[in-house]
Design brief:
The complex is a heterotrimer of chains A (about 50), B (about 260) and C (about 550). Chain A is about 75% helix and about 0% strand. The longest helix of chain A is centred in the middle third of the chain and has 31 residues. The model of chain A has no long low-confidence stretch (mean pLDDT about 85). Classes of the chains: A mainly alpha (about 50), B mainly alpha (about 260), C mainly alpha (about 550). Chains in contact: A-B, A-C, B-C.
C-alpha cells in the first residue's frame, strides 16, 4: 500500500506546484473538513443535550 | 428533615397512597421541597408548556443552526482566499508568476471596526434590558412600557451605529475606487470586495432585523414575541461583529 | 387548503407537487437521452434530431432536476413536513411561516430552472456539476450564457430555501418533541431527517459560496476559478491568473457528497422502520442504527475528494480521501446487516410498502458494492466518468431513493388520505419497477467497463483506438433504452392506483399496518405523551405496544 494513490498526471501536476500552493490546498481541505465536522458534532451534541 | 441525596424523580417510593386506611392519622409529608423537587424542571413538562423561555429557546436553536451554516459559507470563502493567494502560473518564460498584490486597507476600516464593536455593546445592553424582571413584570401587567422604552433606545443606538458602519464601508469602497482599485484589479482586491460586500449584506440583514425588532417592540402585544425578536437579532448582530473581526484580521494581516 | 397555508401538511404536499413536476420532466429528458444513444438519428418530436450540444442540455437538466428537485426535496422536505411533526408528537413545525416561505422559494427555483430551456441559447450544457472553465464563459458553448445564469440563479435560490427548511427541521426535532420522546425513542426516520438536515445546513452554504464565486468570474471579471491563459473558443479570457478550476471542484464536491447522503438518509430510516413493522420484529441493534446514521452523516462530510481522484488532486490527498470513503462502507454495511437481521426467520407481511423496503435493501447492496471499487483511485482512474459511475449512483441513490419514496407513499397513504391503495396494483408496480431498474442499470456496469464515457452524445463513428470496444456496446445500449422505457411505463400502475384510491369511497382503518410510531396515534385534543421505544411487538405477534398507549397492548387483528 503506497501513500500515493491517484493518477500519474496528477502526481506530475502536484510536483510542479510550489510547496506554498500545496500547503494552501492542504490547509484549505483541513479548514473545510474540520469546520464541517465541527458544526455537525455541535448539532448532534445539541440534540443529546436536550434530553 | 432527611438530607435528600436522591433526585425526586428516582425516589418515588414514598409517593404511594394507601387508599382508605380507616382510623389512622393522615400521612405526614416529610418532603419540603428543594433539590429540584416539586415540578421545578420546566424542561420535563410537555412541549408547549415549558414556560416563558420556551419560544426563546426555540428561536436560539434555530439561529444556532442557521449561523452554523453561514459559518460554512465564510469558511469556504476563506479557503479559496488562501489557495488563490498562494497560486500563480508559469509565464511564457517558464517563470513562476504570482499576481497577488495585497490591497492596502483604507484606514477608515479601523474606525468601522470600532463602531461595530461599540454597536455590539449597545446591542447587548438592549438585549439584557429585555429580561430585567422588574421592568418585564411592570410592562406585562400593563403599567407603562419601561422595558420597551429602554430596549428601544439601545436598539435605536445600535441601528444608528450599524448604519454608520455600513456608511463607513461604503466610504472605504469609494476611497479604493478613487485609487482605481476595483473588484477586478487584482486577485487580492477580488477578495477584499467579496469579503466586505458579503459581510455588509449580512449586516444589512441584521439592520433589517433591528428594524423588525423595533417595530415588534411597538406593535407586538406578546411579551415573549418581543423578547424573541430582540434576543435573536442581537445574537445575530454579535456573531456578525465577531465574524467581522476575524475577516478584518484576515484582510489586514493575512494578505 | 388556503394557497399560502403554513400548515405543515400543506407545505409537505407543496414540496411533493414540486418533486412530481420535476420527476416527470426528468424522466422525459432521460428517455430522450437514452433514445438518442440507442438510435442516434431518431428525431425528437416537434424538435428534430438531437444535436450533441442539445444532448448535453438534456444531461445537465436531467441531473439537476432529479438530484435537486426530486431527491433532495421529496424525501426530506416533502415527506418530512408531512410526517415529522406527528412522529415526534408535535402539532406543527418550529417555524411554520418560514417553512411555507422556503417551499415557495423552491417552487420559484424550479420555475427559474425550467426557464433555462426557453432563454436565448437554450439550457446549460455544463452538467449538473458545472465545472469551470467551461462554465466560466458564455463562449464555451450554446446555453452557457443566459441558460447557465438561469441555472446559477435557480440553484442559489434552491440552496437558500433548503438551508432554511433544514434549520426548521433541526429546530423542530431538537425542541418540539413531546413528553417522553427522548432521543433514544425517536423513530429512525426522524434520525434520518435530522442527519440529512444537519448535512444540508453545512453543505448548501458552501455551494452558495461556490456559486457566488462562479457568478463573479462570469460577470464581474473575477478569476477565482480561471487559470491564466485560458482560451475558450478562440478567445483568450484575461480576467486574472491566480485561479484554478480545482478550487471549484473542492467547493462543489464538499457540497456534492453530503448532498447524495441527504438524498438517501431519510430512505434508510424509513426502510428500517417499515421492515421492522411488517416483519413484526424489533429493529436489530436500534442504538447502533442511530449511531450509524450519524456516522454516515459525519463521514459524508469528509470524503468529497473521491470525486476528484483524476482531477489533479494531490495523490497524497487522494489516499486520505480513499481511506475515508472506504470507511463509509462500515456503517453502511452495519445498516444492511441490521435490516437483514431484523428480517431473519420472520414471516413478513408483504403488503405493498414492504416489498419496496426490501427492494431498497437490494438496490442499496447492489449499488453499494460498486462504491468501494470506485473509492480506490487506481480503479477510479479507468472508471471515472464512465457509465460504471452512472450505474453506481443510479442504483444506490436514484433507484434506492425512489424505492424509499414509493415505500413512503404506500405506507403513509392511508394516514394522509384515509384510503387504502390497492395491494394488487402495488405488487404489479413493485415488480415492474424492480425488474426495470435492474434491467436498465446493471448493464451500465458492463458498458462502463467497456469504456463508455459519460455525457457522450455519439458512440458510433468516432475515431481512435477505443472506438471498436465502444461500438460493440451498441446492442447493450439498445437494451438499456428499452429497459428504461419499460421502467418509465412501469409507473403507470402507481398512477392508476393513486387515482382510483383518490376517488374511492372506502375508508381506511385508523392504523391499518398496526404500526407503533406516533404518526398513527388517534387524533386527540390532549398533548401527546410517549411511553416507550417504537417497534414493540409481542413474540408471536398477538399484540403490540404502540408508543402512545400507556400500558395496554393492542391485539393484532387477524388478517
Amino acid at each position: 500500500m503506497t501513500f500515493l494513490q491517484g493518477c500519474a498526471q496528477c502526481l506530475d501536476s502536484t510536483r510542479a506546484t510550489p510547496p506554498a500552493v500545496q500547503a494552501a490546498y492542504r490547509h484549505a481541505i483541513y479548514l473545510l473538513g474540520g469546520a464541517g465536522a465541527a458544526v455537525f458534532a455541535a448539532g448532534a451534541w445539541l440534540l443529546r443535550r436536550e434530553r | 428533615m432527611p438530607i435528600t441525596l436522591t433526585p425526586p424523580e428516582i425516589d418515588r417510593r414514598h409517593h404511594t397512597g394507601e387508599g382508605d386506611g380507616g382510623g389512622r392519622k393522615p400521612p405526614t409529608d416529610k418532603r419540603t421541597g428543594g433539590n429540584g423537587e416539586g415540578g421545578d424542571n420546566w424542561g420535563d413538562r410537555p412541549q408547549g408548556r415549558r414556560g416563558p423561555r420556551e419560544r426563546l429557546s426555540q428561536a436560539r436553536v434555530g439561529l444556532f443552526f442557521a449561523l452554523g451554516g453561514d459559518l460554512m459559507f465564510f469558511v469556504a470563502l476563506v479557503s479559496v482566499f488562501f489557495v488563490n493567494k498562494a497560486s500563480g502560473h508559469f509565464d511564457a518564460y517558464s517563470h513562476w508568476v504570482n499576481e497577488w498584490l495585497p490591497t492596502a486597507l483604507p484606514s477608515i476600516l479601523w474606525l468601522n471596526t470600532a463602531v461595530l464593536l461599540v454597536s455590539s455593546v449597545t446591542a447587548e445592553l438592549a438585549r439584557r434590558s429585555m429580561f430585567r424582571e422588574h421592568d418585564a413584570m411592570e410592562e406585562w401587567i400593563g403599567f407603562g412600557r419601561p422595558l420597551s422604552r429602554r430596549a428601544g433606545i439601545w436598539l435605536g443606538l445600535t441601528l444608528l451605529l450599524g448604519a454608520l458602519f455600513l456608511a463607513g464601508q461604503w466610504m472605504a469602497w469609494d476611497q479604493l475606487a478613487a485609487q482605481h482599485v476595483f473588484f477586478a484589479s487584482n486577485p487580492s482586491s477580488h477578495f477584499f470586495y467579496l469579503i466586505t460586500v458579503t459581510h455588509a449584506v449580512h449586516l444589512l440583514l441584521g439592520i433589517a432585523g433591528l428594524i423588525a425588532a423595533l417595530a415588534g417592540l411597538q406593535a407586538s402585544r406578546s411579551m415573549a414575541t418581543r423578547q424573541v425578536l430582540v434576543d435573536s437579532t442581537v445574537w445575530y448582530w454579535h456573531v456578525m461583529g465577531v465574524l467581522w473581526v476575524f475577516l478584518f484580521v484576515l484582510l489586514e494581516y493575512g494578505q | 387548503m388556503r394557497i399560502f397555508s403554513t400548515h405543515h401538511r400543506a407545505v409537505g404536499f407543496g414540496y411533493l407537487a414540486i418533486s412530481t413536476v420535476a420527476v416527470a420532466i426528468g424522466v422525459l429528458l432521460s428517455l430522450a437521452m437514452r433514445t438518442h444513444l440507442a438510435w442516434p438519428e431518431w428525431p425528437l418530436p416537434v424538435h428534430g434530431p438531437i444535436l450533441p450540444e442539445e444532448y448535453l442540455t438534456l444531461v445537465t437538466m436531467h441531473g439537476t432536476l432529479m438530484l435537486f428537485f426530486v431527491m433532495t426535496v421529496a424525501p426530506q422536505s416533502g415527506f418530512g413536513n408531512l410526517i415529522l411533526p406527528a412522529q415526534i408528537g408535535a402539532r406543527q413545525m418550529a417555524f411554520p411561516r418560514i417553512n411555507a416561505a422556503s417551499m415557495w422559494l423552491t417552487a420559484l427555483a424550479l420555475v427559474v430552472l425550467l426557464a433555462a430551456f426557453f432563454v436565448p441559447g437554450g439550457g446549460p450544457i455544463g452538467g449538473w456539476t458545472a465545472y469551470p472553465p467551461l462554465s466560466e464563459s458564455a463562449l464555451a458553448g450554446p446555453g452557457q450564457g443566459t441558460g447557465m445564469d438561469c441555472w446559477l440563479a435557480s440553484i442559489a435560490i434552491f440552496g437558500i430555501a433548503s438551508t432554511i427548511s433544514a434549520v426548521n427541521t433541526l429546530t423542530t426535532i431538537v425542541k418540539l418533541r413531546c413528553e417522553g420522546m427522548t432521543w433514544q425513542r425517536l423513530p429512525l426516520t426522524v434520525w434520518g431527517w435530522f442527519t440529512a438536515a444537519l448535512l444540508s445546513v453545512i453543505a448548501f452554504s458552501v455551494l452558495l459560496a461556490a456559486l457566488l464565486l462562479l457568478f463573479c468570474d462570469r460577470h464581474l471579471h473575477g478569476s477565482f476559478f480561471l487559470p491564466s491563459g485560458d482560451v475558450v473558443n478562440g478567445v483568450l479570457l484575461q480576467h486574472g491568473s491566480n485561479g484554478s478550476p480545482l478550487l471549484w471542484l473542492h467547493l462543489f464536491w464538499f457540497f456534492g457528497h453530503p448532498e447524495v447522503y441527504i438524498a438517501i438518509l431519510p430512505g434508510m430510516g424509513l426502510t428500517s422502520m417499515v421492515i421492522a413493522n411488517f416483519a413484526r420484529r424489533r429493529v436489530f441493534a436500534y442504538r447502533m442504527m442511530i449511531a450509524t446514521t450519524l456516522l454516515i452523516g459525519l463521514l459524508g462530510i469528509l470524503v468529497w475528494g473521491h470525486h476528484m481522484f483524476v482531477a489533479g488532486l494531490n495523490p497524497f490527498a487522494g489516499t486520505v480521501f480513499s481511506i475515508s470513503s472506504l470507511a463509509i462502507a462500515l456503517p453502511a454495511s452495519a445498516k444492511v446487516l441490521s435490516w437483514l437481521a431484523t428480517l431473519w426467520r420472520s414471516r413478513p407481511r408483504l403488503t405493498a410498502a414492504m416489498p419496496f423496503a426490501l427492494g431498497f435493501v437490494s438496490l442499496f447492496i447492489t449499488g453499494g458494492l460498486s462504491g468501494p471499487i470506485l473509492a480506490q483511485p487506481i480503479l477510479d482512474e479507468y472508471l471515472h466518468n464512465t457509465f460504471f459511475v452512472v450505474a453506481h449512483f443510479h442504483l444506490i441513490m436514484a433507484m434506492a431513493g425512489v424505492f424509499g419514496l414509493f415505500c413512503a407513499t404506500y405506507y403513509w397513504f392511508p394516514l394522509l388520505f384515509g384510503r387504502m391503495l390497492s395491494e394488487r396494483l402495488g405488487k404489479v408496480h413493485f415488480w415492474g419497477t424492480l425488474l426495470g431498474a435492474y434491467a436498465t442499470f446493471l448493464p451500465m456496469h458492463l458498458t462502463g467497463l467497456a469504456g463508455e464515457p459519460r455525457h457522450y452524445a455519439q458512440l458510433n463513428g468516432l475515431a481512435g483506438p477505443g472506438t471498436t470496444l465502444l461500438e460493440s456496446t451498441q446492442p447493450l445500449q439498445v437494451h438499456i433504452t428499452v429497459a428504461a422505457i419499460f421502467l418509465a411505463l412501469a409507473q403507470i400502475p402507481l398512477l392508476v392506483n393513486l387515482l382510483r384510491a383518490w376517488r374511492s369511497s372506502k375508508k381506511a382503518e385508523p392504523n391499518p399496518w398496526n404500526a407503533t410510531t406516533m404518526e398513527w396515534a388517534p387524533e386527540s385534543e390532549e398533548l401527546a405523551v410517549v411511553y416507550r421505544e417504537p417497534c414493540e411487538y409481542s413474540v408471536t405477534d398477538e399484540s403490540f405496544l404502540t408508543q402512545w398507549s400507556p400500558g395496554a397492548a393492542i391485539n393484532t387483528e387477524a388478517e
